[in-house]
Amino acid sequence: MIEWIESHGEWFYLITFVWTFFEGETFVIFAGLAAHMGILRLDYLIACAWLGSFLGDNLYFWLGRRYGERIVTRFPKMRAGTDLAMLWLRKYDTWFILSFRFVYVVRNFSSFACGMSGIFWPRFMVLNFVAAGVWACTFAGAGYFAGAAFQHLFKDVALAFKIAILSLFVLVIAYSVYMHRKGKRAAERARQEAASPSADG
């Protein structure tokens, strides 16, 4: 991964923008590690990841606003995730827009669902811009400071970065599993709470 980043030179910033337009915290973490190695500039990396993530979400928002019901009808497997995202948006509003990037169960549907919800687009853009910045800084910074920590612990630089990469990989997998399980539990609670008023009635 690091060799691949190094081989693309300045073009890697454009790759970061395109990649984060669709997805990619694992990608950004390893890019942050490359920034600590001096292969990339951390500020450029964060800026590209920030902008790519922000614009990608706004594309999904536009698709939800313009073609939402048509797309969900065409791809019915999207219905459950979209409905859950809209439920959480109604319940948590601002906090949901600021945090959905970190919620694995619904993050792929969230911007699309926000578009379908009728929320004022400029408001979504402002909140989403802040959230994209937090996301980019968090994951790029995680990779950068992991590299710094392991280089401090191990005198052998090559060994330090090998251990850092392995550790980051394990942490990303563990974090993904944890967030997936946490999201499923939260989704189940949200469904139960949504069903309770009708059950009482």
Which properties best describe this structure?
globular; mainly alpha; 201 residues
Envelope shape: globular
Structural class estimated from helices and strands: mainly alpha
Low-confidence stretches: none
Question: Biggest β-sheet, characterized?
Answer: none
What is the ordering of alpha helices and beta strands?
HHHHHHHHH
Number of H/I helices? 9
Helix content percent band: over 70%
Q: Could you tell me the radius of gyration in angstroms?
A: 19 Å
N-to-C CA distance: 56 Å
Annotation, overall tally of beta strands: 0
Query: How many domain modules?
Result: 1
What proportion of the residues form beta strands (DSSP E)?
A: under 5%
Quick check: average pLDDT?
Answer: 80
Give a description of the structure.
With 201 residues, this protein is mostly helical. The chain has one domain. Helix content is 86%, strand content 0%. It contains nine helices and no strands. The protein has helices spanning 2-8, 11-22, 25-36, 42-74, 78-92, 94-99, 107-117, 121-153, 157-200. The longest helix has 44 residues, at 157-200. The N and C termini lie far apart (56 Å). The model has no long low-confidence stretch (mean pLDDT 80).
